[in-house]
Amino acid sequence: MERAAINVVGLSKRFGSLVALDRVTFEVRPGEVFGLLGPNGAGKTTVIRILTTILHPSAGRAEVLGHDVVREASAVRRLIGLAGQYAAVDPNLTGRENLRLIGRLSQSARARIRPRASALLDRFDLAAAADRPVRTYSGGMRRRLDVAAALVAQPPILFLDEPTTGLDPQSRNALWALIRELVREGTTVLLTTQYLEEADQLAERVVVVDEGRVIADDTPAALKAHLGNTVIELDMGDQQHAARAAKTIDGRLGLAEAAEVEGARLRLPCRDAFGLLRDILNLLEADGLVPRTVAVRESSLDDVFLALTGHRTWTGSGTEPATAGGSE
Predict the structure, then answer these.
(1) Quick one: 63 and 145 in the same domain?
(2) What is its main location (predicted)?
């Protein structure tokens, strides 16, 4: 049986009375993109910091390529690259100088550092700006340089903690393409993100965490299939009409899934959207309710998260404590 690239069993972390992680368990297979999803404060960054040996767990254990992250921290550090939430490069050095410095700090062979830095600058489309101070780079360029820095030592496992936060769509798509390329070459990637579209695009499997606990663990396709293949969305104009419409639908159609109300919008995951929509519109019309807009679309991971937690990822409350290194 192939050894897991990352194995997490019963991982818990407390900061005083605050439980940041509560018995988190998951496994990452070699050569896959694994998505760790959740709102701010869910525990994503705490998991990353434990797996990269920055924090010690309060309970449980974790291994990276068979090495315990506490007992064999030095061995783990030699196997991983980390691009955190914020660019770790020096703004006063050039892109080339940053990568060469990282090479020296990672104790790479001196003869390899210069060609490796040049190769990464080419690969990440930074060669033209290689000798400019990083403070002159755009946000997307800094993010690409940060990921390049995490790859200087050619680690088999790469941790990306919300790598595209704050990037424009073009920069985000460019970074997605680079991540796919790395995985095709054999790199294992653990990706944390609040952007569910990102996980849907990149991850082969996802774990959803909320308030420090794992609440789902499966492929994106399986999670969406469990919820329903399609989603009906109705804009009822105001919250009162939406609540009344939900009561009408739930009370008379006998559906397995209750209609979800969010402000003036009503959402219903289902499998036979068009047949159900006809019945819904007839019921609402009989009750004197007419939606402002009607939409039928494929279900998304955002719908899954909303069904599991009752809120969207970007409305999660709170952040992790300062001792954990700031918010997620």
Answers:
(1) yes
(2) membrane
